Amino acid sequence: MKGWNGCFLRIDLSNKKVIKQNYSEEFAHKWLGGRGFAIKLLWDELTPGTDPLGPDNMLMFLTGPYSGLVIPNSGKLVVAAKSPITGGYGDGNLGSMAGPNLRKAGYDAIIITGKLDKPSYILIENEKVEIILANELWGLDCYETEKILKKSHGVSTGVLSIGQSGENLTRFATIISQEGRAGGRPGMGAVMGSKKLKAIVIHGTKEPLLADKEALLKLGKEGFDSIQKRDNYNFWKKQGTMATVEWCQNASTLPTRNFSEGIFECSKEIDGNTMEKQTIKQRGCPNCNMICGNIILDTNGEESELDYENVVMLGSNIGVGDLKKVATLNRICDMLGLDTISAGSSIGFAMECSEKKLIDSDLYFGDFMGAQRLLREMAEMKGEGALFGLGVKAASEKIGKGSSDFAIHVKGLECSAYDCHLCPGMALSFGTSPIGAHHKDAWVISWEISSGTREEYGPSKADKVIEFQRIRGGMYESLVACRFPWIELGFENEWFPKYIEAATGVKYSLDDMWILGDRIYALIRAFWVREYGGKWDRKMDYPPIRWFKEPLKKGPLTGKHLDLSKYDLLLEEYYKKRGWNNLGIPTNDTMKKLGLEKESIELNKILENVK
């Protein structure tokens, strides 16, 4: 097999058993890699109803045929499992040396099951795979852990680790690499912690067998050169995603005080221009020439890597208008292994509950010291953190008193940093994201606002969400590749079939990629329905209630909010275009067209039991 290694590394922690399993070319061609491999493996092998924090959950680290090759932005891998915060499908990607090293070690994925009886880490060095006791690492943060492991195993290794939040099963614990590279928002760090697995260290020295190495190197160089010549390249290098702060402020979509408003009075103090003046260095993923990680010094003089999502969720969303303070909160999250988006949402929710006297707390919006305390308590699952470390959905269910009206989530996963009081297309993107509320799969908000269709609920919104989901959530997440060259600089998608043909010898058209995306989304939705016992409702695809019930009170969009009846019609359009029924479940015909006949029969048995 060319382009793929054709081998999975399976590790049963309970029995300390390691198996190297070859898989077929047919499997590779149909599911490609990354997310495609992940959902097929979960569907086939995970027992329905498995406890996400139990030993039987599967924790997977997956690459694709694009990963680790000397072509633009190939330094990514996907981490996936059944999610402890949503109970459905969960994944995330992160860029670090781990992905390229995994490919060079000879594996396309690590599939981990079982549970260790003592804290340990996995060491992978090509054919050599060891499980090593790590009692001395348990309780350390991610920065300390990686520093120790790299000292033992070399600076060129890829290290994936969890902090105290993963150890203590905070439901939105992530997996961290290289002091700020994070992946797995839906609690992948908690799944790793539940297995008593502190870290994975990977070092590979082999090269994947390629169909046409010379052609791939030539195409790679052309791609790198093309990216550098793009109009927005120089500005991107200065601010990266942080330019979005100013854009969202101007568009009244900047999450402020738990998504109650779309503008922030201190936005200029946390925007890209302010960051640019404070940046001391930059950090990026392997094989990237459009680096997005900008590092400033926090209030303690420590380095903190910033991007749009963490700055806004730990800034305007909790009422903190000082970039150095935001950087401090961000660094705490990265060290403890807390997802910055969900952490910022949980803090904002807690502050609002406190101000409304729904809980016995002295938290308030803008409370920098209180935010630090709550982050640490969430990572330890103690004090107030024992409640808010469950995520806003579970916390609101325990608090009651109408708090669910301002718990900002979809399917249990907190929304990332875009207020959608008047963005029905982006609201649909959040509602139908395959992991719960996340922007990664279909960031349509820029198109929606720039196209002048902001207040419209027409079919074009459903078309655009599906188009972006096919590209971002289907193709990119399965290749596995970074989306930034395309979405930020206009790097054409037509490059990718060329890269894959040179790597694998297999010809894919973009239409083939879109079908792949539809296949993945249908099976992910089937997985959600299965894990919910067939009890599925279209309300699962609704965005947060606040955007319907509470109008904006500040700025040019004062009085505006989403219309539920119009959103419901838009959701109906989305279902029709996807070939799903009016509950949001893929039909038999759709499943068969996508090559999911067997999966369709299995899904029908579950649905029949509900009837």
Do you know the CATH topology of the largest domain?
Aldehyde Ferredoxin Oxidoreductase,  A, domain 1
CATH classification class of the largest domain = Alpha Beta
Low-confidence stretches: none
Specify the number of helices: 26
Tally the structural domains.
Answer: 3
Q: What percent of residues are in strands?
A: 5-15%
Arithmetic mean pLDDT: 97
**Sequence of strands across the biggest β-sheet:** 2-1-6-3-4-5
CATH homolog superfamily of the largest domain: Aldehyde ferredoxin oxidoreductase, N-terminal domain
**How many strand elements?**
17
By helix and strand content, what is the structural category?
A: alpha+beta
Radius of gyration: 22 Å
**Name of the CATH architecture of the largest domain:** 4-Layer Sandwich
Measured between the Cα atoms of the first and last residue, the distance is 45 Å
Main sheet record: 6 strands, mixed
Task: State the helical fraction.
Answer: 40-55%
Inertia-based shape: globular
